[in-house]
Design a protein that fits this description.
The structure is a homodimer of 195-residue chains. By secondary structure, chain A is of the alpha+beta class. Chain A contains nine helices and eight strands. The interface between A and B is medium-sized, with 31 and 31 residues. Chain A binds a DNA duplex (30 and 30 nucleotides) through helix 9.
Chain lengths: 195, 195
DNA sequence: CGGATCGTTGATCAACTTCAACGGTCGTGG
DNA sequence: CCACGACCGTTGAAGTTGATCAACGATCCG
């Protein structure tokens, strides 16, 4: 958990007192997942927010033809959840699973809302998360309606190189909203031009 | 402002006390815009959050060729801002202007953060806004990478009919990420099939 | 070693864009 | 108040982009 307190201090500029550590200790539960193991399956209700402390995961939907569409990637220090299902208590349309062996810290809905009022640092952390999430979402939406497939890929290489290194190409393609073949050809073009 | 207190109570289930009304009264400033008037221009820093009390607005970027790309529409009871610019204090890449004559309630960054700690209802309102925003963003991203142009349009007709009625077709097209001609043809198809 | 998965490549096909032209409507200035 | 210009939606034709289908080699893992 020490790395977690460090994480909180880093994002909130608030040190965590030892009483607060006690409270956090009880609210967050560690969990381990093997590669390919589900954290959430379509139809489940998402009961937890999960902070990745080690590993790599993805959130995706599956269409009628079996095609997968990646909504979100996550690695160390990213939070994973189906926000819609978590907040509304509705069955999820998404799957979340581990792409690498993964370690998490999980917190349930009630504890999450309680801690936000009890611990100032958690309030700030939440606001910070929401802020970053809002900014990132706006960027991705803008990219989706504005950029071509190639531009979206190059943009991702710049802003999210870690994802490109740790996830296979077909998942990257499904995140960009293009077919794996198209991504393969785009990379070839870009490489021939000299990256 | 009475409608605003009503708005807060509706979304937070917290009535606003008369002392709180005083505080809110000083923090929020009414503003009127004529049709086509800018609220924010590219390069400006977005200093306010604006709640639309009457009218219709849009947020959009302009590319090198002069093409417009609509990121967000807003009508009564929607908040408008470039969240990235507002939170980070960075120059905006977007324009926001009025499509109809519009009335707003505006609040600045410092007041916004102060009220979130001083007034419980504002804390709840903020959390609710962020929650809704997160859910809506996830949906739109998923639609963008999953659905065809026609499916995105039909989805928008279902979930946002007010926008389709109040904004012209070329703006709807730029919101969906397709050309105005394509949208025209899609509508013709859908109409011939019987809506 | 054998099967599954992944990335690549080619050929064909579908979706969407672009360019151009036209008619209708609306707002504005003379 | 009318006439003109600007803008909008529509339609057609041609051009691009990306999807699909199929085949193949490489790699990884059991």
């Amino acid at each position: 958990m020490n790395r977690f307190y460090e994480y909180i201090r880093h994002y909130t500029a608030h040190p965590v007192t030892s009483q607060e550590q006690d409270v956090l200790q009880h609210a967050f539960r560690p969990k381990k997942l093997r590669k390919r193991q589900y954290l959430l399956q379509e139809g489940d209700i998402c009961r937890h927010l999960s902070l990745i402390t080690k590993g790599a995961m993805r959130q995706y939907s599956v269409d009628e033809k079996g095609g997968e569409h990646t909504v979100q990637f996550g690695i160390e220090n990213w939070w994973m959840s189906d926000r819609e299902s978590f907040e509304l208590g509705s069955p999820s349309k998404y799957n979340i699973d581990a792409w690498e062996d993964t370690e998490l810290l999980q917190i349930g809905y009630d504890d999450w809302w309680r801690l936000r009022s009890e611990i100032p640092a958690m309030r700030i952390l939440t606001a910070e998360m929401d802020k970053r999430h809002a900014v990132a979402s706006q960027k991705r939406i803008h990219a989706a309606i504005t950029l071509t497939a190639e531009e979206r890929y190059l943009e991702m290489m710049k802003s999210q190189p870690a994802f490109i290194q740790r996830f296979p190409q077909n998942m990257i393609a499904s995140y960009l909203g293009i077919s794996p073949e198209t991504l393969s050809r785009i990379r070839k073009q870009a490489f021939l031009r000299g990256d």
